[in-house]
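Ticket #4471: structure output looks truncated?

Reporter: J.K.
Steps to reproduce: submitted the chain below (120 residues) through the standard prediction queue, then opened the result file.
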Amino acid sequence: MGCIKSSQAKQDGESTRRGGRRIRKPKPWNHTEPITRTQLDQMREEFWDTAPYYGGSREIWDALRAAAEADDLRHARAIIDGAGIIVESADLTTCYDERGAKYELPNYVLSEPANLIRES
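Returned output as attached by the reporter:
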């Protein structure tokens, strides 16, 4: 008799090893006030520039950035697996490296807000 988690993982076609959790896009979200693409890009760049100073490995932060910016979820999953990142939340907002360091990603680096203003 297996545990529920491993049974579900097998049904989903995912591996049952650590970090084998399926990843998905984050749920829709809204910024506190409408923002432009330029403002969003600036917020993202600022986050990625400062994230390594909060702990963890620079290589893992770089892999998380590449996964967050990947064109599709399969590519993101390959990056996550290759870096040995353990996915705690399927939307990548909480991950760990193999040494147990925690990495938290804000929604704004993972997806666009619903109230993004399109610049003309």
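Triage note (M.O.): checked the attachment and the full token line is present. The longest strand covers residues 94-96.
Status: closed, working as intended.
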